[in-house]
Amino acid sequence: MPMLKIFVGTMYGGALDVAEQLRPVFEEAGYEVAIFDQPTLNDLIGSPTDLALFCVSTTGSGDLPGNIVPFARELEAQSPGLDGLRYGLIALGDSSYGDTFCGAGRQLDALLEDQGAQRLGERLEVDAMETFMADDEALPWAEQWIDEQQLKVA
Ligand SMILES: Cc1cc2nc3c(=O)[nH]c(=O)nc-3n(C[C@H](O)[C@H](O)[C@H](O)COP(=O)(O)O)c2cc1C
């Protein structure tokens, strides 16, 4: 079974909740799913990753949540090259923060792209000003993502 790894960056658990809600959607699509809520670079590159999904909220002023900072630092420092990695990205944010809206998700997206990884489809940006429960947007997005990118394997 192909492996989908979900990497979570969260302060208050919203992004982790999204990851957990998405697990059965990907299992039904034929994936083995692993969720990393204290991710390290080794979780991504130390074992095969057929598909990756990043669920990342923003804190501070466009900053990455602390639990995913080590991952981002290792990615920058080690610059492993991620050619062949396909990923999706769900950013949680709040547009009342203005210019830093979904800043962490955008930052991580740029880092992954710099390493040669290929994002499939558009990034989903969930705005807490408009959507109370991020799952309400993330679930249909994931279903559509699987469909449009032809990711179903079972
Ligand atoms: C102290 C603090 C700072 C925040 N800074 C930003 C920000 O700069 N940009 C943004 O889009 N959202 C910002 N947010 C909003 C969170 O990203 C948003 O509420 C998100 O849904 C939280 O998800 P989580 O439960 O996974 O941490 C901030 C929230 C808090 C509490």
What does this structure look like?
The protein has 154 residues and is an alpha/beta fold. The chain has one domain (3-148): 3-Layer(aba) Sandwich (Rossmann fold). It is 37% helix and 21% strand. The chain is built from 5 helices and 6 strands, in the order βαβαβαβαββα. The protein has helices at residues 14-28, 41-45, 69-78, 103-114, 134-148; strands at 3-9, 32-36, 51-57, 86-93, 118-119, 124-127. Strands 1, 2, 3, 4, 5 and 6 form a 6-stranded parallel beta sheet that branches. α1 links the parallel β1 (3-9) and β2 (32-36). α1 (14-28) runs parallel beside α5 (134-148). It is globular, with a radius of gyration of 14 Å. The protein starts with a strand and ends in a 6-residue tail after the last helix. The chain binds flavin mononucleotide. Residues 10-15, 57-62, 92-94, 97, 100-103, 128 line the site of flavin mononucleotide. Residues 10-15, 57-62, 92-94, 97, 100-103, 128 line the site of flavin mononucleotide (FMN).
Features:
154 residues, alpha/beta, Rossmann fold, 6-stranded parallel β-sheet, globular, binds flavin mononucleotide, oxidoreductase activity, FMN binding, flavin adenine dinucleotide binding, Flavodoxin/NO_synth
Break the fold down into its secondary structure elements and pairings.
Elements: E1 3-9, H1 14-28, E2 32-36, H2 41-45, E3 51-57, H3 69-78, E4 86-93, H4 103-114, E5 118-119, E6 124-127, H5 134-148
Parallel strand pairs: 1-2, 1-3, 3-4, 4-5, 4-6
The protein binds flavin mononucleotide.
